[in-house]
Structures are given as structure tokens and as C-alpha cells.
Write a structure and sequence with these properties.
By secondary structure, the chain is α+β, with helices and mostly antiparallel strands. Among the domains are: 1-137, Beta Polymerase, domain 2 (2-Layer Sandwich); 344-389, no CATH class. The chain is built from 20 helices and 11 strands. The strands form 3 sheets. It has a 7-stranded mixed beta sheet. It has a two-stranded antiparallel sheet with strand order 6-7. Strand 6 (92-97) and strand 7 (102-106) form a beta hairpin. Helix 15 (295-305) crosses helix 16 (307-321).
Amino acid sequence: MTPSPWQHDAGLRRVVGALVSAGGAARLVGGCVRDWRLGRPVGDLDIATTLQPAATIEALKRAEIRPVPTGLKHGTVTAVTEGRGYEVTSLRRDVATDGRHAIVDFTEDWAEDASRRDFTVNALYADLDGAVHDPLGQGLADLDRRELRFVGDPARRIREDYLRILRFYRFAAQLGFYQTVEGRAASQKLASGMARLSVERIWQEVARLLAGPHRFPILQRMAEDGVLEVLLPGATIPDWLERLETGDSIPALAALLSSEGDARRLGRRWKLSNDESDRLEAALGPFPADAMDDPVPLRRLAWEAGVQAANDRLRLAAARLGCSPDAGLRVLADWTPPAFPLSGNHALAIGLKPGPEMGRCLKTVETWWADRDFQPDEAACLDELRRVAGLS
């Protein structure tokens, strides 16, 4: 086991020291503990404490650490120190749930806090020295077995928060863990409850799922369990999706859709950002058959549709055909779309009058220039403009 990544984190030690000095106990919790034990990169360092939120804020202030009340009704305060924020959440138990949000009360019982979490592998806590605590007695064993198991009764966990269905498949896509039969059965039975979720949260989870290295078999599993149909009615999973490189959710989502129109409608429905929606739609545009082996039409595509669109279409086409996109990707990586050498001022200078005819002539020459792989220079383009305009 490698040393904990927080072993020498000065900011974390300051925060934990402040909480302990105020009479509380504090441990790292959740994903950072799980990922460290798995040898994966560790992201945010989240802290659980026995102190209640008001006491946490007071403890941080006394230690001259800035508290930010980011989620007080759920017990979360962000401690800002050493140029970084650390989420500190009081141990809690659910008093009432509505399928998405919970009303909580605070506790000092670690097992009670662990019992309200989604999966056993996320119900692990660690001290600063790396000692791991498993209050439910299941998380470490499930981590060793690479098994994704709901805490307690899966149906109850899901009814508390239907987002847990998506998290169940998302974690499997990211970690490659086996999903318990009971968890899948409950997800299948309760999948319709995802309609209660905000589309922003749905897209947040789906995007991470689609970027996961194990997304292909998990998407197949979601289809078998009826979960995919609830999320994306009519979506199909092409066999070639398995060949599409992972790590990027937009091309993977494009592979599940049939047309640019589908992409446009989904972008509106899931409230994708303008950039995400535009990219998704552009990825589903046509890809010239000869652009896989010839840099000239590939550069033409990048000039017309944009480098990102050409990149995405190239990856999708290569996956469909079962070939490597690497040569084309190198072409796009080393190339910046050039600017057309002529403008309206050039046209005026040779005697063309402003208006539709000038625009038509310039566009004709621009197409001629692009057809020649953008090689003709300004002088050559001017000669062609004179010819097109009948001035030569």
C-alpha cells in the first residue's frame, strides 16, 4: 500500500488539527479513501467530523482558517487554507428523504453516518496516518473483491435518492467493479424514478459514465436492465463503440444517437452547455470516405466544420471501420486552419462593385483555394478572382 496522498498535506493537517483542538474527531471519507486503496489518482480530500456545523465554523475561525458555509443544512462547511478548499461535513443521519433531497440530523456515530451512504466502498474513513476505518465491516472486503454493493437494502437506498441508480452504473464504468445482482434488480425495478432528477444532475453523471474505461459493457448492462431506455429512449449501442477510445464523453454520446437532430433535441432536453451541444451536433456530421487516408480532404473538413468536429468525426469513423485514427489525429494536431488570403478590399481594388455578385465571386475563389489544399497565395487567388469576375 502506497503512503496516503494526504500524509504531507499541510492544509489538511491544519483543518484536522483545528477540529480536534475543538474537541471533535475528524477523518478523511469516501472517494479519496477508496481511490487511494485502489491505487487510483486521488481528487478532493473530504473530511467527516463529529462536530456540528456551528462548532466546525467556530473551530476553523479560531485556527484562522476561512470557513465557507457551502451546504449548512446538510452539514457541509468548506475550509479554505493554504490556497485550497476542504469540504468538512458533520456526521449525519437521514430524517426524511423525497427521492432526491434529504432532511438530516447530526450524530457522533460513525456507523450511523456510514449507513446513510450509497455504496459500501464509499463508506470508508481514514485518519491522517492512513489507518482505515470500516464501520459497516463490508467496505474493505468489497473493495478487495472489486464489488459494488449498495449499503443495506438497495431499493431503500435508491428510493432515498434516485441519482444512486446512475451512480451505481457510473462507478462500475469508472472502476470496472462487479455490480451485485440485488443492486441491478433494484435499479431495474425503480428506474422510472429517475424522472424526478434534474437534467443537470443526470448529464453530470452520464458524462462521467461515458468517459469511463469500462463504459461499453456497463452501457450494455444498462440496456439489459431497462435503465438506458429511461435515460435515452430509442438509443442503441453499436458494437463499434467498444473500439472508440475512452476518456471523452461527447463522442461516446454521439455514438448512441442517430442524427444531428437527435443531438440538438438531447442538448435542449439535458440543458447541455452551448459548447457541449454544438460539439455533440457537429460530431454527427458527415465524414468524407477518403479523409481517413488522405490529409487533404481531412484538412478541408477541419476548415469547414472546425478542428474539433473533424477530430470527433475522425474518431467515430475509425471506430466504425475498425482502424486507427492516429495518422489523421496527427495531421489535425499539427495544422491550423489558414485564413483565406482575399477580402472585399481586394475585390474592390480590381474593380468589382459591392453586392451579391462580389460575394459570389469571392466565395467561388475561396472554394477553388480550399480545393487546392489552401496552397494558392494571395497573388494566385487574385488572378483567379479576375478570371472568375471576367476581368482578366
